[in-house]
Amino acid sequence: MKKILFLLAMSFMLGACVPSEDNKTKVDETPTVFKFSDLNHFMNFHTIMTDQKISSKIMSKVDTVNQYSFGLVSQIRQLYHGKASGVSVKTKYYFPKLGDASVVCTISRKDSVLYWEAMQLNSKNALKKWAEVEKIFDFKKTYSGEETLSVYVWSPKGNTMYIEELAVKPTE
């Protein structure tokens, strides 16, 4: 487990050390998309694991010990154009047995939750196989400052499940 995390961190750091073509500051016009490889913006690293019987890829395990998956946490000002009125979330998930879990999206400022929405994951569609789901969470308002965006999978009953991918793309 420690070797996997070390390799992930090293590959991220090596990618960040690629010399630039010039010293001019370029404005990135592509939207921010967070994926498993974006280590700076994620939480719950302790849920990362591999299991060759389920997948050859790295995944996040949710169970009775860890009810929250590996997930995104980022201040809104760090996103594309420093604002967001919603996010598109795409994930692959797997249930070894029927159970309950949801993709959760929150916006918070300090100790206050400003937005919270969850999308139920259908364990019948992902029973002993990978299923993919995509949803746009519409905030009904644009946030553009110190607010924090969090996206993760939550299993309130502690059902065992796996998350193989979690991609989050802010919308304007």
List keywords for this structure.
172 residues, mainly beta, five-stranded antiparallel sheet, 1 helix, disordered N terminus
Compile the SSE list and pairings:
Blueprint: H1 2-16, E1 42-43, E2 48-51, E3 55-62, E4 71-75, E5 84-94, E6 102-109, E7 112-120, E8 131-143, E9 148-154, E10 161-171
Antiparallel strand pairs: 1-4, 2-3, 3-10, 4-9, 5-8, 5-10, 6-7, 6-9
Structure, explained:
- This protein has 172 residues and is mainly beta.
- The chain is 9% helix and 45% strand.
- It has one helix at residues 2-16, and strands at residues 42-43, 48-51, 55-62, 71-75, 84-94, 102-109, 112-120, 131-143, 148-154, 161-171.
- The strands form 2 sheets. The chain has a 5-stranded antiparallel beta sheet with strand order 1-4-9-6-7, with no helix packed on it.
- β2 and β3 form a beta hairpin.
- The longest helix is centred in the N-terminal third of the chain and has 15 residues, at 2-16.
- The protein is elongated.
- The relative contact order is 0.26.
- Residues 1-32 have low confidence and may be disordered.
In short, what is this structure?
By secondary structure, the protein is mainly beta.
